[in-house]
Design the sequence.
């Protein structure tokens, strides 16, 4: 409930008066509504001891107040004393059967017990007696959410918004239901209608932008986020989403400018610094890119994604020594990431450090990497260090996931011929030639001694004919 300025001042005065009374041990008089506000304030702020003190004094001064007894029920429910709360509600029902708050608190008890259908029935009864339809519809929506009935939840949150267009919690919940149901187009239709009636709702414009972003309509997303920021020029989330949309549109300088606005509005985050770095790199501004990559890891030294982003930057610059330094940083933070180990391996392979490369590919494999290039480069690295039998084993691991692959078959042929196992070598060479004749250059490049054998050339010529 939104309090007016005067109501807020009165509430502040009541709180000051109550806390002064506690300090002086003088008993002062408060009307029952003042006590209700005081107790609910302490409950909302988590100061339950003060809420209970206030309730005790309140019931001493107003023992017959239904409002205070309903607040007592709320406090009992909060304390998980639902049986006592239910008993008190039954007593209140006998006195005031048309008090909507009784049914609302009954619903809270049912909800605590995971009896959400009963909670909904109780809330529907409350609708008969309440003037605050929006709040009750919102509560019904939440019960349907607890039951995973997204359609009915959505319907009731919409009813809530029909009563109170400024209930942003319900607006977020409506959009959540649309998202969960993969109804992005329907969400856009709803938000369009909502905005037609409430054109200055920055939250609605922001949510509309998010729907367009999900549908990859980035132009429309930017358009919607623009309206959100025009209505509220300090709307951090809208600027952030707008920047991401601009980045998708490859409008990198505009995206950078937008990301920088978020840095003026709130604390700098590693996410924003990383996005700015990537945008500068896309613009070809390497100096600013590395500057912001460095700021990212300085802001959050444990952000492995930042270290790997710098790794990739240096890989693209073919500066493999620096790339190796940064990939080691990433692995130090998340050592179970197969993609990091694969980068580690490929960097070492580029540096001709084959023992380290073999270790990296092996780690990637052990962590679940089953890509064809992992097996191939792992075997190549093993070949470079002279572990031919283990290279064969690595390739057979690959063949299990990629049967009849020519790249594997040519390598197996080369390895077996090198190991003087001619029969096995010929078997795999025939398989390879049958599978993809043009890939025979793999044998030439990786096993020149085998390639130059007359018997091999004769076999290849025979297949060509």
Sequence:
């Amino acid at each position: 409930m939104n309090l007016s300025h005067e109501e807020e001042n009165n509430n502040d005065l009541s709180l000051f008066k109550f806390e002064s009374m506690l300090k002086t041990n003088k008993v002062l008089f408060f009307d029952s509504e003042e006590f209700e506000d005081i107790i609910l304030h302490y409950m909302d702020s988590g100061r339950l001891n003060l809420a209970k003190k206030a309730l005790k004094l309140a019931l001493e001064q107003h023992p017959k107040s239904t409002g205070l007894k309903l607040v007592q029920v709320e406090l009992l429910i909060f304390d998980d004393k639902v049986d006592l709360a239910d008993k008190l509600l039954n007593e209140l029902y006998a006195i005031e059967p048309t008090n909507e708050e009784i049914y609302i608190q009954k619903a809270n008890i049912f909800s605590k017990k995971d009896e959400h259908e009963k909670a909904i029935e109780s809330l529907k009864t409350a609708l008969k007696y309440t003037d605050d339809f929006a709040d009750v519809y919102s509560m019904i929506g939440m019960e349907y959410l607890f039951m995973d009935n997204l359609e009915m939840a959505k319907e009731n949150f919409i009813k809530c918004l029909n009563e109170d267009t400024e209930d942003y919690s319900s607006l977020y919940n409506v959009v959540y239901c649309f998202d969960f149901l993969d109804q992005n187009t329907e969400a856009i239709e709803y938000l369009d209608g909502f905005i037609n009636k409430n054109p200055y709702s920055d939250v609605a414009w922001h949510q509309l932008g998010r729907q367009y972003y999900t549908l990859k309509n980035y132009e429309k997303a930017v358009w919607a986020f623009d309206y959100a920021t025009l209505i509220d020029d300090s709307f951090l989330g809208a600027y952030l989403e707008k920047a991401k949309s601009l980045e998708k549109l490859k409008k990198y300088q505009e995206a950078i400018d937008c990301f920088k606005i978020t840095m003026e509005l709130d604390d700098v985050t590693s996410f924003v610094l990383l996005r700015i770095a990537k945008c500068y790199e896309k613009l070809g501004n390497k100096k600013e890119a590395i500057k912001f990559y460095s700021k990212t890891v300085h802001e959050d030294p444990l952000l492995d994604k930042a270290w790997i982003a710098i790794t990739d930057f240096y890989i693209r610059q073919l500066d493999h020594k620096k790339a190796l330094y940064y990939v080691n940083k990433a692995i130090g933070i998340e050592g179970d990431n197969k993609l990091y180990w694969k980068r580690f391996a490929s960097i070492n392979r580029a540096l001709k450090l084959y023992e380290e490369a073999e270790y990296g590919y092996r780690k990637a494999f052990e962590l679940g990497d089953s890509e064809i290039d992992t097996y191939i480069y792992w075997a190549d690295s093993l070949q470079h260090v002279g572990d031919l039998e283990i290279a064969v084993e690595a390739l057979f691991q690959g063949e299990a996931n990629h049967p009849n692959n020519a790249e594997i078959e040519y390598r197996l042929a080369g390895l077996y011929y090198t190991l003087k196992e001619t029969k096995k070598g010929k078997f795999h060479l025939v398989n390879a030639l049958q599978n993809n004749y043009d890939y025979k250059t793999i044998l030439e490049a990786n096993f020149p001694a085998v390639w130059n054998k007359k018997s091999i050339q004769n076999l290849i010529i025979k297949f060509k004919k």
Q: What stands out?
A: The chain has a mean pLDDT of 91. The two ends are 87 Å apart (CA to CA). The chain is about 80% helix and 0% strand.
